[in-house]
């Protein structure tokens, strides 16, 4: 299961969770001071100097006299920005009280604690919330054992008391207090619910370090740290963790595997460290490597890896083609693929993405069955898989829509929604 932080662009919740958008009062903040102490507005706004500079791109040439402002280390730029700030403060001085009032009113309308709806996974309910007075979210879970009281507990973050069984997995606020700055890139809970793997940037340079936390003891495994980690995926038995690693240009180019032995096996075999080896390396610098699990956790995709038996190696699902994408999910022995790969006009004259499937044993073959070939006024842009149905997200005649299709899906070359 993957998580992203609430209200932060760098950090997504699972598709089934609602995204919560926050209006930060800082957008309306201003230095609090009396009007009499504000600098008087200048007669005219500051005008930056013009420096001749010629730009030539794609056979076109033009003058850009403000090109010098692209150098953020230029002291003249800092001086000009300071003059603009002084001018803006003076120009807006008479609205300081109004802006402060608007900011207070909007802040008062926000709930003190904002939460995502809980998502059930196995015996646990996972959710995030931003504590009152805090800036960053907290990732939590609780055992889903009160079946009869589920609806009551569903809204416990909207004014009701949270269950005492709540378990905090990761608190962004504690990390921020410790390091001064924090950005959590990716969170992955292991399929056995015992480990949390996440990537952490504490410098602001978007260089992330992989860490693995034992959720039973609350301790970080110091031997699991890997610099430059980007995306993560667990094997189904939670003994192996796949991750991608960036190169010197911060391009994710390599996929590796960490093998973690269970405590019982560690003691029996005498191992006290992790084994690590590369699985896949992308040498073409025009491509980046990402890794994710199918929603049922049975496969991991860059190429397709069996997460139950990762030692079986990588299998190619489709040949790489320029400008062609494949989004893969798995359900009951079938791969469901959303792709924009060209089809012969005899099959489909449309453009964009369509839905196909193939059996797992037919991987690397051309035995793809067309399931949904959309009409020309319809554009599919995403899909989601659940236990009993598949959901398509699409636009039809300009309107965003979604459609639920019950399993098993029927093959229909002329299917339209």
UniProtKB/TrEMBL annotation:
Region called Disordered, residue ranges: 30-52
GO CC, one annotated term: chloroplast
Superkingdom classification of source: Eukaryota
One Pfam family linked to the record: Peptidase_S9_N
Record GO terms (molecular function): serine-type endopeptidase activity
All residue ranges annotated as the Peptidase S9A N-terminal domain in the record: 45-402
InterPro entries on file: Pept_S9A_N, Serine_Peptidase_S9A
Annotated Pro residues bias: 38-49
SUPFAM superfamilies given in the database record: Peptidase/esterase 'gauge' domain
Name of the molecule in the record: Peptidase S9A N-terminal domain-containing protein
Native source organism of the sequence: Phaseolus angularis
């Amino acid at each position: 299961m993957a998580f992203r932080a609430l209200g932060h662009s760098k950090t997504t919740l699972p598709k089934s969770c609602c995204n919560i958008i926050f209006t930060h009062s800082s957008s309306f903040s201003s230095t609090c001071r009396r009007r009499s102490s504000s600098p008087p507005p200048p007669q005219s706004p500051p005008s930056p100097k013009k420096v001749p500079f010629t730009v030539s791109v794609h056979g076109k040439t033009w003058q850009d006299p403000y090109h010098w402002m692209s150098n953020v280390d230029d002291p003249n730029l800092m001086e000009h920005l300071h003059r603009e700030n002084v001018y803006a403060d003076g120009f807006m001085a008479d609205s300081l009280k109004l802006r402060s009032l608007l900011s207070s009113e909007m802040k008062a309308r926000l709930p003190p604690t904002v939460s995502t709806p809980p998502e059930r996974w196995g015996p646990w309910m996972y959710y995030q919330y931003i504590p009152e007075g805090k800036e960053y979210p907290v990732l939590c879970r609780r055992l889903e054992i009160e079946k009869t009281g589920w609806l009551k507990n569903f809204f416990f973050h909207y004014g009701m008391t949270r269950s005492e069984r709540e378990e905090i997995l990761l608190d962004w606020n504690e990390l921020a207090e410790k390091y001064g700055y924090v950005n959590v890139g990716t969170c992955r809970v292991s399929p056995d619910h015992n480990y949390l793997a996440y990537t952490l940037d504490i410098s602001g340079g978007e260089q992330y370090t992989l860490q693995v936390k034992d959720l039973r003891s609350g301790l970080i495994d110091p031997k699991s740290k890997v610099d430059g980690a980007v995306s993560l995926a667990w094997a189904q038995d939670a003994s192996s963790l796949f991750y991608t690693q960036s190169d010197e240009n911060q391009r994710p180019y390599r996929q590796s595997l960490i093998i973690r032995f269970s405590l019982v096996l560690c003691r029996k075999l005498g191992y006290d460290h992790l084994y690590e080896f590369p699985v896949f390396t992308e040498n073409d610098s025009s491509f980046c490597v990402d890794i994710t699990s199918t929603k049922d956790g049975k496969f991991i995709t860059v190429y397709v890896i069996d997460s139950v038996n990762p030692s079986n190696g990588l299998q190619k699902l489709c040949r790489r083609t320029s400008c062609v994408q494949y989004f893969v999910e798995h359900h009951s022995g079938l791969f469901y693929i959303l792709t924009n790969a060209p089809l012969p006009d005899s099959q489909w004259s449309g453009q964009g993405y369509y839905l196909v499937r193939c059996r797992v044993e037919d991987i690397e073959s051309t035995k793809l069955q067309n399931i949904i070939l959309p009409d020309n006024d319809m554009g599919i842009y995403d899909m989601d898989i659940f236990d009993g149905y598949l959901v398509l997200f699409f636009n039809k005649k300009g309107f965003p829509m979604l459609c639920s299709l019950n399993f098993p899906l029927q093959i229909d070359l002329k299917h339209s929604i």
